[in-house]
Design goal:
With about 375 residues, the chain is an alpha/beta fold. The protein contains eleven helices and 16 strands. It is globular.
Length: about 375
């Protein structure tokens, strides 16, 4: 890994490549134009706001999961702001309502409690209710919003029809890194349960989890599903991709600090799975490393490990064509979504810097973190 062209960047460092981001955005724009759907950027998955100037022409706005994301969308994106939370706090309602275009409540109780207040602050605010179609093909239960005892969305059994008079839309979210085929089945269950309420709505939000930019995704089927739904019910349709926007748009550049041996060779990096790549532990999934293979695929095997005191801070086992040396770069690919938004300074480890490779090929560091960033989040 000696010949990586980004050796002059700080380490660790996230590197966004704008040409890759634009490729994803162009596909999203194609779907938006062909289907008539509106597409929002889900900030919970991708919130690198220094790239929003590139994103704005291709998207209708952002969806937020509370006050801070709503403020970020309002201040840095400047288009539609749709805000949903499992539960809103009373002291934040007025500020959220002021800067939002849509406000989606998770329960009839919260809609009754805060809907009138929100509308009094912003008469143009469109209110909605999140519903649970009680069907999902989510690959992991931790990411299944329709699983047993889920707190996310109102089931048909618990629906208070009276609150629908306050609503202009319904929202559901049932996918996780899934295909148009999965969406088709979710729509069948959504319509079976809530179809009689759709004609009185102005919009239906299909939520996120659509893996649109992944190779092999059936884009044409997605377009047809949206067009058919719009024609059937005469409503606006929204999608909320987050991961699909940031999918394969950049990497996390790390450096080998030391190599120790305890039954296997272990390369200790200046990064952390626990702090910088938490989805590799939570999901879990194996992050791809540039130029590396699985164990024994190549000649030299290493366990890649983080530089914290957590015993389980391990990225995984990989093999390389040549031996790793102290100072070598190890590049984890596809690290723009659900990494930066979840990163922490656990164990005092420094957050990765952020760099952007522009469309013209130039590379600039847009943010570096230091001790003050660690100190100021504590007290």
């Amino acid at each position: 890994m000696k010949n990586i062209q980004y050796t002059y960047l700080p380490s660790p460092c996230w590197l966004l490549e704008e040409d890759r981001l634009q490729k994803n955005l162009l596909l999203i724009e194609h779907i938006r134009r062909q289907s008539g759907a509106k597409v929002l950027l889900a900030l919970k998955g991708y919130a690198l706001w220094k790239s929003f100037e590139l994103c704005k022409p291709y998207l209708n706005g952002c969806c937020a999961s509370g006050l801070h994301e709503a403020k970020l969308a309002y201040e840095t994106f400047g288009k539609e702001v749709h805000t949903y939370a499992p539960a809103f706090k009373e002291e934040e309602i007025e500020e959220i309502a002021t800067i939002s275009h849509h406000m989606v409540f998770n329960s009839a109780h919260q809609l009754r409690k805060f809907g009138e207040i929100a509308k009094s602050v912003n008469p143009n605010l469109s209110l909605g209710l999140r519903v649970n179609p009680e069907y999902s093909e989510s690959p992991k239960e931790i990411y299944n919003p329709c699983g047993l005892y889920s707190r996310l969305g109102t089931t048909l059994q618990n629906l208070d029809e009276d609150v629908l008079s306050f609503c202009e839309g319904l929202h559901f979210h049932a996918l996780c890194e899934q295909s148009a085929d999965a969406l088709e089945k979710v729509l069948e269950h959504f319509e079976a349960k809530f179809g009689k309420y759709i004609p009185q709505m102005k919009w239906i939000n299909f939520g996120g989890g659509h893996h649109i930019t992944r190779k092999g995704y059936d884009v044409d089927k997605l377009i047809q599903l949206i067009k058919a739904f719009k024609a059937k019910y005469n409503v606006e349709v929204y999608l909320e991709p987050g991961e699909a926007i940031g999918w394969e748009t950049g990497s996390l550049i790390t450096t080998v600090l030391d190599i120790v041996h305890n039954g296997i060779d272990i390369a200790i990096l200046d990064s952390s799975a626990e702090a910088h790549m938490p989805d590799t532990i939570i999901m879990p999934y194996r992050a791809e490393v540039l130029g590396a293979g699985k164990t024994n695929e190549k000649q030299h095997n290493y366990r890649l490990a983080g530089n914290t005191c957590l015993a389980g801070d391990i990225m995984g086992d990989y093999s390389f064509d040549a031996p790793l040396n102290i100072g070598d770069k190890v590049i984890f690919e596809d690290q723009m979504h659900y990494t930066m938004v979840k990163a922490t300074t656990f164990n005092g480890i420094k957050l990765p810097s952020i760099a952007i490779k522009k469309l013209d090929g130039s590379i600039g560091v847009v943010r570096e973190f230091d001790y003050e960033d660690f100190k100021n989040r504590l007290s």
